[in-house]
Amino acid sequence: MPELPEVETVVRGLRKSVIGNKIKDVKIIFPGIVKQNSKNFKKVVSKNKIIEIRRRGKFILIDLSNGKTILAHLGMTGNFILVRASSPLNKHDHLIVRFYENHSKGSPAFGGAKELRYNDQRKFGRIKSFSTSKEENIFDLKKLGPESLNISSSDFVDLFKKRKGRIKSALLNQQIIAGLGNIYVDESLFEAKIHPSQKIDQLTPQQLKKLHQAIQKILKKAIKAGGSSIENYYNIDGEIGSFQLQHKVYGREGLACKRCGTKIKRIKISQRSSYFCPRCQKRT
DNA sequence: GCCACTGTTAGCAT
DNA sequence: CATGCTAACAGTGG
Hints:
Blueprint: H1 4-18, E1 23-28, H2 38-45, E2 50-56, E3 59-64, E4 68-73, E5 78-84, E6 93-99, E7 114-120, E8 126-131, H3 139-142, H4 153-161, H5 167-172, H6 182-191, H7 205-224, E9 265-269, E10 272-276
Antiparallel strand pairs: 1-6, 2-3, 3-4, 4-8, 5-7, 6-7, 9-10
The structure holds a DNA duplex.
């Protein structure tokens, strides 16, 4: 679920709806999500204004007026949703950020105070805070590879030129390149006509260039569609994305390839289901 | 009921 | 060092 396009959709939603809002306090329902002393986290966050929202890889960064930043990762099933403070809690709501009423600026239908809730069925997500000025020292961010949406074609080719192993495993590795996950890797490899278990050192610079282009194209289209909603994903207004309707291979085992009609195959690579067209994506 | 599977990744083993 | 499994969790489907 939350890969780069989904996280970007959440970030854009937050930017539109909560920048400038002043946080009243934070309620932690399930402490396991907060990877920091709960009291400390609450103290750092409460009574501060949200001044900026950013994304790095699949991480969400929320900058506060006191020089601190909230770092959130959605794991597999995490979601932020903006709701009326009076609305009933949902199953798997783990954390609530409450805003002051007079700073609410949502739609007119949104009278009264609102709050941002973090929901996560599988509890793989995590949230913590750090000093904005110390960002370059934060391990979670430091280890990330270049942004898959920013990297230039030549840097991308250089990045993989020296690598071994299977192309899909490398694309999933956030330390090599940040933001891609299982869905967008499969879709990008199909677009570039590259077999997911293709050995990287057998790829030509031309193929890598094509793969770079495919990634840019797929990610941009997915962001435009508000991401892919397979089961659990929705944006901060509770709306689902629509890119799943444009998937050409992911989740389409046994169905006809949209390009050539051959049946889409599914194999396991690094323990992850990998969908591809055996005719369009030949291994070399 | 049991087992396999699911969008991620830290941590450990090889 | 690079690469590959497993576990963390909850739910669903066969």
